């Protein structure tokens, strides 16, 4: 299991160091710094073996978070834990950077004590952790309170405490998808997939039980088989094929397996209800048509057309890479602002309000400097896009979300529900 | 103010302030884009801007980014007259422009201009750049130029200095490019230069040159001595800039002293006295109280002193100096500085080998021993051990060996192995009393058994066996040593061997009765490794012979399943063989078979060789010096002796393996140890033999191959033998020049067929078939020789050599052979590729000599290689006018050759045509008035030029005769072509 956990800044200075097992010595701290952070060649592998010790690291802005072990342990578990830990820290003090970590190091040590015990991950749920690790000063807790916490943490429903009461029962549901695409210059889709998350924010009283319905093919079809009469008139379209999905620990998996129903008692506050991935029938929000022409050895012409395939107004950014020997760029675009950003070796084209079903064009003339070394040819990296659109590209739909609370007298109708769809760009690239 | 390049400073500070690698990368990208746009821009950049941007590029490059532009701008900077701009340009070029860049040509032009410049600063910059690039190409280009600068009368000091250093660098990269001319004698006189910097640079250059050919620079000895004298006698105020912490010109002094070490002591007495005075002054200065407490002062002073001492040791002629050096070093032995102690011990090591100072060194024995015990630094302790080893002689051997043994108990693991070897050697070398020797070695095994190599205990056994007087004592001591509860396996080996041989000598004592001896040995048996167990079994059977009364016990042991059915074959075999020997043979047979071992032949200790292997440099130095001491007149004699000894060692090697097995068996299981004990020492003598032959040899394999070589080539030609023997590098000589055809040439008739065709069987007998396939293109050709083994047995030691019967052939033909392996398997075919370049016309024919051993009989076949001048001829077409024009041009008597001869084959026109075309000529029709005549032309292509040839063949059917006329540019060629063609028709 995890033998130790270190946090470094970008210079390789140790900010946090917590050793859980004796087989990890102090020199492990230096080993990682020397061999990974300060390595001559940039180390790209997140797992590194140095002197029979495994180092797992993730990097967030300028902070290195590194777990160390001498044992042969499950790497996926370690990374899941590291990301969870980043999430926990983020929810406690916002952005993870050197300054925040330095300011909160007592809190972080306190958290680390709870998150890991002898190297085994324990409770990583923010909501629960916040019940007994607070950023405010130490509040003397009565005996009842402490037993309550103990009971709750060790009980069956560890993620929700009893006796929550709200005047307004509200529920927010966000479907956030990131769209990934790689397209050939001719417009052929080389690879495309959507990874989505359903985020939920619940402000519900008591211990409500929720039922969640989506337009997944499997679920819908099983439902239809159950009551064939009602489904007779339903159209066949409108169902999506989810490749795989995973749920928050509150979802009763046994019920999902037998009845294909998503049923759960939600934690209080914000949490991620489910995650899914989809590769079929993705509606691509934008199409990029590149045209690159090299005129001689010192000039290049680039034309890029962006088409939107939906009806809404959004903000878009297109990034067009330029050769490494660019000496000057002249850009003309019909809409938005385009600028040559030398530090990134790219032309960045920003359109603040891109209308639906529209088509805009940019053309640029790039002057090139004669390189002394002719052997190196420009590799033409793909054109990438950044956007956020108000619909789910996979076609994911929330069909219903029902809340049942037997003890308190409020019904499903009294709960105010908000549903929102967001489609973000992941790696949305077109080769040129 | 403008020269401070503010933009650069800002850029660098920006980079330094970057928080992350990504930020740094972004900043660099931005800067690169900026520079690109500036370079590309329409506005012409002035020198300052160019310099600034080139500087930035240089900085970015040094941060680890690739730079692929800006080279042109950097080269442009070279044209500037400003120092800073030129300097940055050169800097960029020496760092960034690779050797084979096309801009190099431009750079070289600029360098040339600057070298010729009147401004010494520019010349210096160019010299620096040449030295920094220091490529072969640079050497080729500038090596002839730079010496001129060096000896030019009016050149400035700085130019001379840079030129010397630049030349040194070029000399180091490509010594062959630097021409030695009359400047070499003038360069010596730079030692007299007024400017100390010039002298320092020149000394470095001269030393490098001296290493290559010392004779050319003999004159520098007296000059450098007088220079040295001037420096050492000067006070530190005289030399101003060149005084370093009150020491006058320490670097120069060290260099001069080092230069002198390349030569023997000067013969001229005045010069010699002068040098002696210098050295004495240096020694005197060492004892003076220091002028400064700073470490730099003492470091500089000691550097000069140590170099002087090395020179004294190198000359090895002045006893008083040697003794003084020794006493000075003695003082350093107790110095606080670890480095000084180390150096003192190291130098003393060399002093100890000189006959003059050996006694002086011995006086410090006690200090050295204390150093050994109390020194903290392991490397210094190591040196102390070396010194003790070097200063040891008969008088103090017992003491020193005793000290070493006591030290061995606490010694570091890293030097134990070597220490053990040294003790073993000293004990043997200076043993007056062999009981002492036996005691020492047994002690050694007891103290550091793991570090005692096989050789050490082999040696003790050899000595015990050869010296009757110690045998009883050895048996007793060994017995006592074995009684210890825990003893090392090596001790068991020695014990087993000695008790097996001489157990009877101590059997009279009740405490060591036969059965006790046996029990004692057998008590250790189960703790030992298989080789030792095998050895113990041999010891047991020997004991059966010595003490018949314990026969039954031993039979019981041999019979036990643990031995008789051991998984180790060696143990099993020994057990079963010895068992039947013990059971079935009479006492007489036993006594004969298991007789006491005969004495070993005396020879050099194999331990010494091992020590030498461990530390070649130091030991060799000591050894060579030792030899010099013993036999001053002929220092090379030792090597010669080794060489002559080698064949003697090698001859019994072949027979020694099996014949005397039983003897060897007793000592050890592996066959290589057998041979070692028997005094053959194959592995050891092989390198010696190879080295004696003239080259540095490898292992015993080398010896074999070189013997083979001598065997093969000496029989083929006497002149080839030395050359082949000297090629200890195992690469067999495949082309031999100037050897007379020793064997009779066979297969002549087949050879003639090849004049007109290119493939076929060249030779065939019951054993071997030699096929040839050639193709020629212009002046080069490729001949593939196929050797087919027709027998069901392999041909061993297969070798082929190409003999050039006429020595002029070496210039006419360039022959390269890709040799075949030394074995042709049964019914196998191997091929040998010979590539031939025709340099000029040739007339003789190379011979191919094939040697191999078939069923134990050496065979040799000499064949003519089908390589004739017409092979390089290409047919050429021409019309009748041109033909007659050429014919007339080439009609001088020596260019024409005409022959009238009897036809050798039926006179068929078609066959003749094919043959002529195969020969290489073209056939031109409609030229000769008589259609029966053949007329043609061809061009012989050689590397040195083309040789046009024309011919006319007139058959006379009635008389069965031909008249052949050949015209050719070169006189010999027409004759040769005529001869060749004559044989064909």
From TrEMBL, chain A:
The superkingdom listed in its UniProt entry is: Eukaryota
Where does the protein principally reside? Answer: membrane
| Presence of keyword Nucleotidyltransferase | no
Query: Where does it live in the cell?
Result: Cell membrane; Membrane, Coated pit
Q: Which organism is it from?
A: Macrostomum lignano
Question: Which family does the record claim for this protein?
Answer: Belongs to the adaptor complexes medium subunit family.
Q: How does it sit in the membrane?
A: Peripheral membrane protein
Q: Which Gene Ontology cellular-component terms appear in the entry?
A: clathrin adaptor complex; clathrin-coated pit; plasma membrane
GO BP of this protein? endocytosis; intracellular protein transport
What sequence ranges are listed for the domain MHD? 168-431
Keywords assigned: Cell membrane, Coated pit, Endocytosis, Membrane, Protein transport, Transport
Report the PANTHER family cross-referenced here: AP COMPLEX SUBUNIT MU (PTHR10529)
Query: What is the protein name stated in its UniProt record?
Result: MHD domain-containing protein
TrEMBL record, chain B:
> Is the keyword Membrane in the record?
yes
Endpoints of the signal sequence: none
Among SUPFAM superfamilies, the record links this protein to:
ARM repeat (SSF48371), Clathrin adaptor appendage domain (SSF49348), Subdomain of clathrin and coatomer appendage domain (SSF55711)
Where does the Clathrin adaptor alpha/beta/gamma-adaptin appendage Ig-like subdomain domain start and stop, copy by copy?
752-866
Gene Ontology biological-process entries: clathrin-dependent endocytosis; intracellular protein transport
Region annotation Disordered: residue ranges?
Answer: 624-643
Compartmental location: Membrane, Coated pit
Keyword line: Coated pit, Endocytosis, Membrane, Protein transport, Transport
Q: What protein does this entry describe?
A: Clathrin adaptor alpha/beta/gamma-adaptin appendage Ig-like subdomain domain-containing protein
């Amino acid at each position: 299991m995890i033998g130790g956990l270190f946090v470094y800044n970008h210079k390789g200075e140790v900010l946090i160091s917590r050793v859980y097992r004796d087989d990890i010595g102090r020199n492990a701290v230096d080993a990682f710094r020397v061999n990974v952070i300060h390595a001559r060649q940039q180390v790209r592998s997140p797992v590194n073996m140095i002197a029979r010790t495994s180092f797992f690291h993730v990097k967030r802005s300028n902070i290195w978070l590194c777990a160390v072990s001498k044992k042969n342990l499950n790497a996926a578990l370690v990374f899941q834990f590291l990301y969870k830990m980043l999430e926990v820290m983020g929810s406690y003090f916002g952005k993870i950077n050197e300054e925040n970590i330095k300011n909160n190091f007592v809190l972080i040590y306190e958290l680390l004590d709870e998150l890991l015990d002898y190297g085994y991950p324990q409770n990583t749920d923010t909501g629960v952790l916040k019940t007994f690790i607070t950023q405010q000063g130490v509040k003397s807790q009565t005996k009842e309170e402490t037993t309550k916490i103990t009971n709750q943490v060790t009980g069956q429903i560890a993620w929700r405490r009893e006796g929550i009461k709200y005047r307004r029962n509200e529920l927010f549901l966000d479907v956030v998808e990131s769209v990934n695409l790689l397209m050939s210059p001719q417009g052929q889709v080389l690879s495309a997939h959507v990874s989505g998350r359903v985020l939920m924010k619940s402000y519900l009283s008591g211990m409500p039980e929720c039922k969640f319905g989506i337009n997944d093919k499997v679920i819908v079809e099983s439902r239809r088989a159950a009551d064939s009469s009602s489904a007779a008139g339903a159209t066949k379209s409108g169902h999506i094929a989810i490749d795989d999905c995973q749920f928050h620990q509150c979802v009763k998996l046994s019920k999902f397996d037998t009845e294909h129903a998503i049923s759960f008692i939600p934690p209080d506050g914000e949490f991620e209800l489910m995650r899914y991935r989809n590769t079929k029938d993705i509606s691509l929000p934008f199409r990029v048509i590149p045209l690159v022409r090299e005129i001689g050895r010192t000039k290049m012409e680039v034309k890029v057309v962006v088409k939107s395939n939906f009806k809404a107004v959004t903000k878009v950014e297109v990034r067009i890479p330029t050769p490494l020997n660019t000496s000057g760029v002249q850009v003309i675009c019909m809409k938005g602002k385009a600028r040559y950003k030398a530090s990134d070796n790219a032309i960045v084209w920003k359109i603040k309000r891109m209308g639906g079903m529209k088509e805009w064009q940019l053309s640029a003339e790039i002057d090139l400097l004669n390189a002394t070394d002719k052997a190196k040819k420009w590799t033409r990296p793909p054109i990438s896009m950044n956007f956020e659109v108000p619909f789910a590209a996979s076609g994911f739909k929330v069909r219903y979300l029902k809340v049942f609370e037997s003890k308190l007298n409020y019904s499903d109708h009294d709960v105010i529900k908000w549903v929102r769809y967001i489609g973000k760009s992941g790696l949305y690239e077109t080769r040129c | 103010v403008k020269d401070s390049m503010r933009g650069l400073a800002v850029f660098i500070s920006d980079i330094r302030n970057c928080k992350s690698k990504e930020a740094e990368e972004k900043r660099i990208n931005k800067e690169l884009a900026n520079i690109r746009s500036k370079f590309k821009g329409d506005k012409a950049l002035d020198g300052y801007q160019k310099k600034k941007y080139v500087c930035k590029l240089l900085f970015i490059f040094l941060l680890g980014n690739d730079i692929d532009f800006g080279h042109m701008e950097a080269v442009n900077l070279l044209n500037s007259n400003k120092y800073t701009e030129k300097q940055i340009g050169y800097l960029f070029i020496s760092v960034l422009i690779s050797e084979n860049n096309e801009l190099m040509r431009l750079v070289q032009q600029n360098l040339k201009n600057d070298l010729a410049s009147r401004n010494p600063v520019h010349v210096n910059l160019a010299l620096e750049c040449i030295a920094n690039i220091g490529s072969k190409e640079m050497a080729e280009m500038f090596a002839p130029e730079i010496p001129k600068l060096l000896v030019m009368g009016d050149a400035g000091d700085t130019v001379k200095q840079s030129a010397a250093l630049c030349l040194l660098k070029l000399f180091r990269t490509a010594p062959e490019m630097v021409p030695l001319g009359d400047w070499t004698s003038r360069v010596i006189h730079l030692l007299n230069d007024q400017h100390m910097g010039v002298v320092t640079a020149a000394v470095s250059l001269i030393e490098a040159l001296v290493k290559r050919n010392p004779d050319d620079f003999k004159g520098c000895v007296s000059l450098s001595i007088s220079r040295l004298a001037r420096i050492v006698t000067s006070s530190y105020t005289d030399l101003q800039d060149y005084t370093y912490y009150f020491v006058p010109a320490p670097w120069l002094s060290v260099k001069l002293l080092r230069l002198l070490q390349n030569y023997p002591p000067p013969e001229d007495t005045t010069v010699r006295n002068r040098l002696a005075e210098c050295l004495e002054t240096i020694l005197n200065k060492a004892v003076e109280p220091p002028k400064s407490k700073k470490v730099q002062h003492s470091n500089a002073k000691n550097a000069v002193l140590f170099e002087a001492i090395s020179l004294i040791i190198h000359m090895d002629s002045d006893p008083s100096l040697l003794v003084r050096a020794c006493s000075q070093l003695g003082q350093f032995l107790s110095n606080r500085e670890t480095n000084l102690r180390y150096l003192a011990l190291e130098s003393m090591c060399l002093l100890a080998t000189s006959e003059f100072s050996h006694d002086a060194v011995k006086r410090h024995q006690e200090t050295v021993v204390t150093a050994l015990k109390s020194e903290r630094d392991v490397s210094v302790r190591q040196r102390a051990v070396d010194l003790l080893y070097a200063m040891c002689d008969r008088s103090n051997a017992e003491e020193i060996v005793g000290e070493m043994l006591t030290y061995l108990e606490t010694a570091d693991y890293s030097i134990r192995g070597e220490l053990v070897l040294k003790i073993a050697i000293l004990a043997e070398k200076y043993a007056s009393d062999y009981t002492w020797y036996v005691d020492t070695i047994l002690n050694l095994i007891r103290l550091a058994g793991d570090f005692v190599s096989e050789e050490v205990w082999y040696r003790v056994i050899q000595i015990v066996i050869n010296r009757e007087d110690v045998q009883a004592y050895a048996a007793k001591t060994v017995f006592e040593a074995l009684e210890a509860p825990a003893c090392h396996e090596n001790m068991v080996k020695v014990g087993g061997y000695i008790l097996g041989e001489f157990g009877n000598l101590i059997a009279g004592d009740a405490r060591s009765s036969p059965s006790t001896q046996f029990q004692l040995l057998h008590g250790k048996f189960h703790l030992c490794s298989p080789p030792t167990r095998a050895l113990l079994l041999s010891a047991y059977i020997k004991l059966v012979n010595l003490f018949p009364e314990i026969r039954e016990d031993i039979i019981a042991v041999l019979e036990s399943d643990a031995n008789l059915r051991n998984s180790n074959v060696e143990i099993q075999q020994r057990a079963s063989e010895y068992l039947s020997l013990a059971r079935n043979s009479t006492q007489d047979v036993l006594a004969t078979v298991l007789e006491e071992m005969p004495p070993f032949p005396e020879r050099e200790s194999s331990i010494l060789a091992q020590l030498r292997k461990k530390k070649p440099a130091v030991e060799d130095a000591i050894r060579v010096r030792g030899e010099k001491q013993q036999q001053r007149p002929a220092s090379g004699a030792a090597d010669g002796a080794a060489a002559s000894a080698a064949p003697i060692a090698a001859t019994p090697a072949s027979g020694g393996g099996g014949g005397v097995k039983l003897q060897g068996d007793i000592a050890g299981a592996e066959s290589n140890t057998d041979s070692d004990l028997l005094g053959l020492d194959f592995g050891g003598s092989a390198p010696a033999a190879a080295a004696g032959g003239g080259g540095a040899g490898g292992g015993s394999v080398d010896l074999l191959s070189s013997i083979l070589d001598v065997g093969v080539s000496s029989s083929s030609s006497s002149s080839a033998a030395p050359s082949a023997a000297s090629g200890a590098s195992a690469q067999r000589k495949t082309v031999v020049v100037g050897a007379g055809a020793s064997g009779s040439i066979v297969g002549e008739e087949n050879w003639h067929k090849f004049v007109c065709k290119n493939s076929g069987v060249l030779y065939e007998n019951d054993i071997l078939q030699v096929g040839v396939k050639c193709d020629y293109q212009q002046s080069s050709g490729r001949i593939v020789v196929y050797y087919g083994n027709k027998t069901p047995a392999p041909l061993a030691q297969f070798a082929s050599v190409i003999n050039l019967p006429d020595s002029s052939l070496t210039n006419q033909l360039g022959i390269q052979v890709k040799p075949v392996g030394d074995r042709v398997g049964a019914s196998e075919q191997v091929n040998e590729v010979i590539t031939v370049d025709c340099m000029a016309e040739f007339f003789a024919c190379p011979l191919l000599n094939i040697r191999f051993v078939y069923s134990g009989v050496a065979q040799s076949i000499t064949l003519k290689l089908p390589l004739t001048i017409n092979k390089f001829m290409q047919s050429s077409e021409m019309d009748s006018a041109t033909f007659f024009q050429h014919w007339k041009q080439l009609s001088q008597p020596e260019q024409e050759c005409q022959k009238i001869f009897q036809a050798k084959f039926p006179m068929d026109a078609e066959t003749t045509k094919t043959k002529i075309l195969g020969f290489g000529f073209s056939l031109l029709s409609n030229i000769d008035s008589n259609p029966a005549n053949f007329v043609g032309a061809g061009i012989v292509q050689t590397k040195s030029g083309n040789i046009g040839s024309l011919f006319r063949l007139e058959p006379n059917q009635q008389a069965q005769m031909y008249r052949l006329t050949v015209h050719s540019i070169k006189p010999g060629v027409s004759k040769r072509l005529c001869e060749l063609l004559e044989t064909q028709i």
